Amino acid sequence: MLPAYAELHCRSNFTFLTGASHPEELVARAHALGYSSLAITDECSLAGVVRAHVEAKKVGLHLILGTDVTLDCGMRIVLLATNRNGYGNLSELITLGRRRAEKGSYRLYRHDFEAGGIGALDQQPGLSGTSADVFIDHERPDLSHLALLPDCLAILLPQRGHDAAELLGQAHWLAATFRDRVWIGVELLHRLDDDLWQDRLIAASDASGLPLVAAGDILMHVRSRKPVQDTVTAIRLGKTLADCGLALQPNAEQHLRSRMRLAQLYASHLLQQTIAIAERCTFTLEELRYQYPEEIAPAGESLAGYLRRLTYDGAASRFPAGIPAGVQGQIEHELELIGELAYEPYFLTVYDIVRFARSQQILCQGRGSAANSAVCYCLYITEVDPARSHVLFERFISKERNEPPDIDVDFEHQRREEVMQYIYAKYGRHRAALTAALITYRPRSAMKDVGRALGIDFEQVNRLSASHQWWDGRQIDPERLRESGFDPDSPVVQKLLWLAQTIIGFPRHLSQHSGGFVIARDSLARLVPIENASMQDRSVIEWDKDDLDALGLLKIDILALGMLSAIRRALDLVGLRRGEIFTMQDVPAEDPAVYDMISAADTVGVFQIESRAQMSMLPRMRPHCFYDLVIEVAIVRPGPIQGGMVHPYLKRRQGKEPVTYPSPEIEVALSRTLGVPIFQEQVMQIAMLAAGFTAGEADSLRRAMAAWKRKGGVHKFYDRIIDGMTARGYELEFAQRIFSQIEGFGEYGFPESHAASFALLVYVSAWIKCHEPAAFLAALLNSQPMGFYSASQLVQDARRHGVRVLAVDVALSEFDCTLEELGVDTFGNEQQPAVRLGLCLIRGLSQGGAQRLVTERGTAAFTSVDDLARRATLSLPDLKALAEANALSGLAGHRRQAKWDVAGMLPVPELLREAPIAEAPLLLAPATEGQELVADYASLGLTLNRHPLALLRPRLKKMNLSNSLEM
To answer: Fewest Cβ atoms nearer than 10 Å: which of 254, 564, 801, 873?
Structure first.
């Protein structure tokens, strides 16, 4: 009988560009080989353990969590967590190492493990003060409990290049530090000196008293991954495979070997030690329990009581005429469920963040499934009125599935950072961090990196990768290979394709999520390691949103939305004109003029309905109320289109097809969309009403649709839906047709709650464009970059609507685009204001220079370019940028003259500034119209002169070409 074995040293591909197998592959292979346990020990990281945990639960393998670290002195050790406390200590140690170093690296020292020396946070040489100072003073956590790393085991990994004395010194230090919790690892990898090496390890064990244990230094789950491991090594080193030399592993032994092979290599007592160590490691990720922040309720008030009070205070404000009975019932239902699941802290945490944003006049709005919640509406987290919408709270929270809710909140994209820094300031960086975004290899990046590693011509590889689009999947058309100069049958090309296809999906590095925050009651680092983000003043946990979902941990999405910036700026401009504060709530509802404009597809710049696809739908849809906008937002999506729902809906809406329902139950779900399923919530309702699904089962169906590409879709629900519908009297043929519609819906169905949140912004932005077009244009220009159209197209559209746009001018322009009142016209009617272009549009002009210019002009007008440069202390690049944009015309004449004058400007000593200049100024001729156009687009991205095509129209006319109006 073969001896039992537990592999205690295994790095996955989450040791980026070193490991050559996914965590799931390693777990599945270890189970198939009959291993008792497997430790995932990526280098100073726990990034891949959640994926390994999910697979281990599936196959029934005991998973051990640990890490492989190399100390600054060169000592390499594996650390394994024995219990929850040990895991927390390990996670904090990784955090310490990662946060005192630059992104992508770590730094740990011997004294980090010693009593009295743990966690020395002094800035280390060579980091130039970037992020080496791990914590600012007021949030510096006490790390004294990490001394000697309690509840963790250690395995010394001696390096073959170290001499016997150094090895013995390391062993003695570890024995003194870890006592009975440390071993010396014996890794026999079929090297020439294995016997001599094992003798040296036995001698070190005898001298230090540390026991020996077998280990494998695993990098791949099967031997055949060796070429992949070589390739990722070459990519990591930035070399070709041919140039890597001894940096490559000499053989393929670092794979999960059979137990028979291990029994032949290792003495039985070394294998038995692996089992003894594994039995001490009882921790599992199932033990992690997320604890919400506590300081979110006033002293003396319970979380439930505080949430109830805030909800009803908000409800009284939302419904001044009285809370509708249906809404009150929904509030009570939600509060009861929130209380049963103990989610009050989550709602109060999000409320506090939104409250801060509103106190700073930062426009924000919740979206997604949270818009199904009446409580969120009353807390002013969302803006979808439950009295006017078809809320399905189970889409948001389900007692049956017992998973944390997910609230997404959009903030102005130019001010979101203020909200993020508020979170860090309130909770501290040891308690709050962004979720990671896992950057993986895609076809283009895989082909490019593998091609370089193989030494293939750089330009050829670039051509090949550029020819491959994201929608092409993993396969590469042989014809494209020929077009890029490759022979598809060449052995080198075949190797390129195999290697590239293998590493597609491999993790490349961790980035930061667009805004997903995790906030903990105590130290977040005891839950998951934290590292520095590439952006200053940000930190990131090592797990992404899928990892958090798998463990049922909470995150709050703090997202950025450009249209919120534009709307807030436009409302501010409207308020300035009217002499009073003007908010979204002041926008009149259901304005016929707005719907007429939308139905005419006059929607350039309007949120969500400005694309060509939406514009082509609007005249056919002809929205005339808010709910029509909700449908409009959702219907021009791949789901309804691929599911064949668009044309039936339009025909029914236009009276060309009767509105029918297959049953009264389904009519309840589909009546608001004329019998055609458009929203995800409707699919859930059909499953509940017609097939007898519970709310939790219906949400599982929705999640299966959302993951159909990754996990095989909704086929596993086929029997449940068919059986449920036929048991309720539906014909088999009809049940199959309903399932086909659900299947066609795929992952692209749009949630109604999400569409309703966006429809609010559609209406508000459309109202501003309709009634305040000048403010709309100025706000959009001030919020760039955002949206579907360039600044040039926005200006052209506004001018077609009668908005006068004035050139940028140092004598008149502010930093932002502003409005200038034009008074009344010749008939006594008040005119729309003009838009004065702002200095912010000038490419190459520094923000500081522009702000100094505006400040100095406020004290006195500029008399010359020299006066401007001196008082605003503008650099030569700033002056050149102003001249290029023709913003100096009032001081220096036309653009060419201004550019010439600025080019000759040199710093003048104070003594000579008033001295007369005898040299006569050089006068240049103005540029041609074509040259002016080119300069406008180069400096501003737009022109106020004629359209560039106007210069070519006479020539095009002679060629008998028709213009767009004649077609």
So the answer is: 873
Residue 846 sits in a domain whose CATH number is 1.10.150
Where a domain ends, among 256, 287, 318?
Answer: 287
For 746-797, the DSSP string reads GGGPBPHHHHHHHHHHHHHHHHHHHH-HHHHHHHHHHT-S-SSS-HHHHHHH
d(CA 352, CA 346): 10
Residue 259 belongs to a domain with what CATH number? 3.20.20.140
For residues 267, 269, 271 and 277, what is the CA-based torsion angle, rounded to 10 degrees? Answer: -150
DSSP states along 632-690: HHHHSSHHHHHTT-HHHHHHHHTTSS----S-HHHHHHHGGGTT---BHHHHHHHHHHH
Residue 731 belongs to domain spanning: 638-741
- 404 plus 528 within the same structural domain: yes
Helix axes 344-359, 325-340, angle to 10 degrees: 120
Confidence of residue 212 (pLDDT cuts 50, 70, 90): very high
Same structural domain for residues 724 and 789?
A: no
Q: H/E element holding 805?
A: strand 805-806
Report CA-CA distances (Å) from 758 to 76, 283, 527, 634. 53, 44, 35, 10
Taking phi over 0 as left and psi of -120 to 50 as alpha, with beta for the rest, 624 belongs to alpha
874 and 955 in a single domain? The answer is no
Asked whether residue 707 is assigned to any structural domain, the reply reads yes
Residue 417 lies in a domain: yes
| The residue to which tokens 């990098």 are assigned | 219
Beta strand 76-81 pairing with 212-214: unpaired
Residues 6+ apart with CB under 8 A from 701: 683, 684, 687, 693, 714, 717, 742
The tens digit of pLDDT for each residue in 475-533 reads 666 777 777 778 888 898 889 989 999 999 999 999 988 888 898 888 899 999 999 98
DSSP 402: T
pTM above threshold 0.70: yes
Verify that 673 and 814 share a domain, yes or no.
no
Based on the domain organization, do 842 and 873 belong to the same domain? yes
* Parallel/antiparallel/unpaired status of strands 432-440 and 539-544: parallel
**Strand 152-156 relative to strand 76-81: parallel, antiparallel, unpaired?**
antiparallel
Question: Are 372 and 460 in a shared domain?
Answer: no
Q: Tell me the DSSP string of 470-532.
A: GGGTT---HHHHHHTT--TT-HHHHHHHHHHHHHTT-EEEEEEEEEEEEE-SS-GGGTS-EEE
Between CA 933 and CA 943 the distance in angstroms is 6
* Cα within 13 Å of Cα(381), Cβ side: 28
Q: By the 8 A CB rule, do 774 and 819 touch?
A: yes
- Per-residue HEC secondary structure of 147-206 comes to CCCCCEEEEECCCCCCCHHHHHHHHHHHHHHHHHHEEEEECCCCCCCHHHHHHHHHHHHH
- Domain count for the chain, please give it: 6
Alpha-carbon distance 48 to 785, whole Å? 36
Q: Are strands 212-214 and 182-186 parallel, antiparallel or unpaired?
A: parallel
The size of the chain, in residues, is: 967
Q: Among residues 691, 762, 750, which one has the least CA distance to residue 725?
A: 691
459, 420: one domain:
no
CA-based Rg of the chain, rounded to a whole angstrom?
33
| Angle separating helix axes 344-359 and 303-318, nearest 10 degrees | 50
Among 30-39, 653-662, 668-677, 943-952, top mean pLDDT goes to: 30-39
How far, in Å, CA of 43 to CA of 46, rounded?
Answer: 8
252 token code pair? 């393929």
Whether 894 and 945 have beta carbons less than 8 Å apart is answered as no
For residue 948, cis peptide bond before it (omega within 30 degrees of 0): no
Find the DSSP H helices in 37-135: 49-59, 84-99
Tokens standing for 613?
Answer: 């696809």
Tens digits of per-residue pLDDT, 851-902?
999 999 999 999 998 899 989 999 999 999 999 999 998 888 889 888 888 8
